[in-house]
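Archive maintenance. Older records in this collection stored only the sequence; we are now back-filling the structure field for every entry so that each record is complete. The fields below show one back-filled record exactly as it appears after the update. Entries are processed alphabetically, and RagB/SusD family nutrient uptake outer membrane protein is next in the queue.

ARCHIVE ENTRY
Title: RagB/SusD family nutrient uptake outer membrane protein
Organism field: Arenibacter arenosicollis
Length field: 475
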Amino acid sequence: MKRQLTSLARKMVYLSLFVAGVISCDDLAIDTQGELAAEQFYSSVADIQSGTLGVYSVLSDKLFANSENYCHFWAADDRTAATGSNKTFYLEYDQMQPLDTNPWQTNGWNQLWEIIGAANTFLDNEEKMRALVQGSDEEILDRSLGEVHYLRGLIYFELVRTWGTIPLLTSQADVTGQEPLASFEEIYALIIEDLIFAKNNLGPTSVNGIYRANKWMAQALLANVYLTTAGFPLKNEANYALAAAEAKGVMDSGIFALEPSLNGIMGVQANNLSEDGNTEAIIAFPANIGLDGWNAGNYQAESILFGDKWVEIAFYNNFPEGTRKDFTFDISDTGQIFYSIEKFGEQDFGNVNKDINYLRYAELLLIYAEAQIRATGNNSEASALSALNDVRERAGLTAVASATWEDVVWEKAWENAGEWSRWYDIIRTETLDEVNAIRDPYDNNLTPLGNGITEAFPWSPIPANDVSANPNLQK
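Back-filled structure field:
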């Protein structure tokens, strides 16, 4: 990890200038040699804007675009891995027996820490930046700080939900590479602090790029964080009410709505973020083929092009019949269940014009429904049922007059099938044993389960090289 966190200031400056030239709408000065020293940077408002883009650089180019960084999602019941070819690294998680030498998972770990380092480098310079701005430029700085706090909160949320306890770095100063593991309480406290700061300092619309953070992104993510901290491992159940309140704030904004048709939920060409917009996209990263045709949208492209996301039999069999099931899955000539082109979109290898959706409005409605039911203890609470039934009715299902929190979690599994949330929901609700118990014999034979990942310890192993360099990372 030290490799990602030390000597990062110069790299962060280079990245910020490169990205400013590639994806920014601003005319910012560019150091084409990438040789500005960190102490020479952050000496103008243009530097502040360029530095902010630098924190986005890895995220917008690779991190959320390639499923190779997310092998742990294959531990969930909404997917299974092919057993041959280059799918071995997914298979480790599908069989609950991940290795700490998994190169794809290690790559995701490294990229996440690169963003943390870039964010901390920027925030370390806040005092210097404050000294050079005045008037309307102060608003630019406040917005930039809000974006970077949002990004740091987002990335730490990814780290802690995947690897469990991790080091907690809030500054690049004096990083030694021997930092100890922080507690879950400490990590989530920083995430919540970052997102509250972002919510309070960002405006309602993105500025200088549709992928850029705004108030609603921060607030929706905060709702998800509160929901997560109310479950395993923290089990701070008072946070269910906070999750419901934050989700409701976004719902009441009137900015977002369910797409009328399921065909629009993932941002097809006609309504992707770069075209006419998508009313369901709260947090999304738009396809940017100019960055890299392989990576742009590849996270979802792999479900169609390479057969990397098969569907476990029990998940498919338990999925409610009807419009959404037909929309979500395709059956091959040999009877294999795949995710459909209709859901994930028509794509051509190397030319993927596809939004990468991280949090949709449908998921926010279900976050609210679950949190509200848990907070009130009322399975018939009207606003929770309204949110739940909005999703169900769009899916072609009948409205319900009552629902348990378990009902909502399963609804979310079906609505977000093949997306970002299922594995994390299984962890926080402590339902891994339950899910594995209903696994179909076909999948048990195809990918027999080990015990490297358990309900009590569902975390990915920290990469072996990092543990070797820093024994404090050993769990």
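Update note: The CA atoms of residues 267 and 355 lie 6 Å apart. The chain is about 50% helix and 5% strand.
Entry marked complete.
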